[in-house]
Inverse folding.
């Protein structure tokens, strides 16, 4: 595969991201100048996110709420040869396109290491643990900016939670992920808003329940209702 001939489609699922969507898309402008496209998929925002995003990306589309549903909708609209799924509160490293395209010459999918942008010292350990776990298991999380060749993309399972884990398990049948040591930077707001220790325990609990066979919709309710 000749990396010079590949165009990336960066798919950004968003829901009520008015406070940060402009900065997120401005950070992707260098990719657009190099010929890649950015698609924002709005899941029904009530804060004007689509209007703020429209001038800063190639397309804004609407989809039913749910990260898997939104990402799949974006992939269907994408025109690139490879897809990058990027959370609205995550920033790619400089020249991420070159890193991705180089990786896709030998792999069909991959992800970046992650760094959590937060002051709490525990979150530095969380980021390191996420990266190590991913390397050992071949499972990527959405925070790690999953990327995949378009011709290998079968869609995210349209489940309420854990779609990234289910997707990784399916993709491992096509080959191991490219685990890039360069780091994306993701916001620590999810952990900080609920309490760092509480959120760490919650996420491990949900992962264990999923491993033991709990239904994703049950896990989603637990996640939503946890104070």
């Amino acid at each position: 595969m000749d990396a010079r001939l590949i165009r990336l489609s960066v798919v950004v699922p968003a829901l009520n991201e008015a406070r940060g969507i402009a900065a997120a898309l401005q950070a992707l402008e260098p990719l657009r100048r190099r010929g890649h496209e950015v698609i924002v998929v709005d899941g029904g925002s009530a804060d004007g996110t689509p209007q703020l995003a429209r001038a800063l990306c190639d397309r804004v589309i609407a989809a039913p709420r749910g990260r898997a549903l939104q990402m799949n909708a974006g992939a269907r609209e994408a025109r690139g040869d490879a897809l990058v799924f990027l959370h609205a509160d995550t920033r790619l490293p400089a020249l991420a396109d070159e890193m991705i395209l180089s990786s896709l010459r030998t792999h069909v999918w991959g992800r970046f290491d992650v760094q959590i942008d937060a002051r709490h010292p525990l979150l530095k350990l969380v980021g390191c643990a996420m990266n190590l776990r991913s390397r050992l298991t071949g499972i990527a999380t959405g925070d790690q900016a999953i990327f995949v060749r378009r011709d290998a993309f079968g869609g995210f399972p349209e489940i309420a939670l854990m779609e990234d884990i289910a997707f990784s398990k399916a993709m491992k049948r096509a080959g191991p992920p490219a685990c890039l040591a360069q780091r994306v930077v993701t916001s620590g707001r999810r952990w900080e808003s609920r309490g760092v220790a509480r959120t760490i325990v919650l996420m491990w609990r949900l992962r264990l329940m999923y491993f033991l066979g709990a239904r994703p919709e049950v896990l989603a309710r637990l996640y939503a209702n946890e104070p």
